[in-house]
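Friendly challenge for the regulars: who can give me the structure tokens for this chain first? No prize, just bragging rights.
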Amino acid sequence: MRRHRPRPRPWSNLTDAEFEALLPFVCNTGAGRPVHDLRGKLDAIFRIATTSLPWSRVSTDHGPTATLHRLFRRWAHAGVWSRLLKESARRRAPRAIRRMQSWIAAVFRRCHRLLGLAAVVLARRLRIHRALPGPSWYFPDPDLSETLMAVLADAAKRPAGDSRAAELTRLTLRLLRNTTRRRPVPRCLVPVG
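First reply, four minutes later:
Bragging rights claimed.
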């Protein structure tokens, strides 16, 4: 089954429908104080995420970027961006959320260091490769790893003299070694927006 790949959408202010669709995800996160000018802060976060600039180099009308970055991190740890990415991948997601999928992927890509391997696993399983901080072949594939581990477990159950089990084990271990040795993603391959 081929998934729809979102086209990068240039940043623009949130529409009323988009803001209404985001409200259930960002309200009541249970972390920190209530956010003043929520719509403006969401606009600023999406605007920053769709650029390749660091947080400190972008100026906004919605408060200091350090405050925006703190809010972004707080929502990342509260699971807001993960839930939004899952919602945007659903077939029956609201139209406003589907329109923002490239922005949501850009924000999620920015929080991969905060969420670690769980972010890579989620983006790969949802097949939203734009949410990865580089080309998909640079990151682990959890489904491949689980499949290979099952093959190794099956080979271990075979009798000791079985030549096919030994060959299968050797090939599987070689494949695991080759797929786990990746160098850092070059900056020229990091997606923007």
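Residues 163-180 form the longest helix (18 residues). The mean pLDDT is 81. Your move, everyone else.
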